[in-house]
Design a protein that fits this description.
Elements: E1 2-7, E2 10-13, E3 18-26, E4 28-39, E5 46-51, E6 57-59, E7 67-72, E8 77-82, E9 91-102, E10 108-115, E11 119-124
Parallel strand pairs: 2-11
Antiparallel strand pairs: 1-3, 3-8, 4-5, 4-9, 5-6, 7-8, 9-10, 9-11
Length: 125
């Protein structure tokens, strides 16, 4: 009913750039906060960046100055522009959104954290 499709992951050399995108589809009633988490092997999942409906952004200290989060409300899409990538950025990146949507029986449902399946980013040295 609601689908989050992430794309843009792949293999990149240290110092390179990638752009991740996440498009939300379905019977969307509202789409509030959007963001990206990541999880590296053996590490806890961490917040990378988030953006509110009003455009307020938050970044992890480790990516400040290198990553930029943005959104296109008309497309229900959030982006993560990643520059100056480092090997420690290697992780599975997850799109997470706060949304309300209609179920098949037309009842509205709201969730603070609706997760995508993730896209792998690998940064080689």
């Amino acid at each position: 009913q609601v689908h989050l499709v992430e794309s843009g992951g792949g293999l990149v050399q240290s110092g390179g750039s990638l752009r991740l995108s996440c498009t939300v589809s379905g019977r969307i009633l509202s789409l509030t906060a959007m963001g990206w988490y990541r999880q590296a092997p053996g590490k806890e999942r961490e917040l990378v960046a988030q953006i509110s409906n009003g455009g307020t952004t938050t970044y992890a200290d480790s990516v400040k100055g290198r990553f930029t989060i943005s959104r296109d409300n008309a497309l229900n899409t959030v982006y993560l522009h990643m520059n100056a990538l480092k090997p420690e950025d290697t992780a599975v990146y997850y799109c997470v959104v706060e949304l309300c949507y209609y179920r098949d029986d037309d009842t509205p449902v709201c969730q603070r954290d609706y997760w995508g399946k993730g896209t792998l980013v690998t940064v080689s040295s």
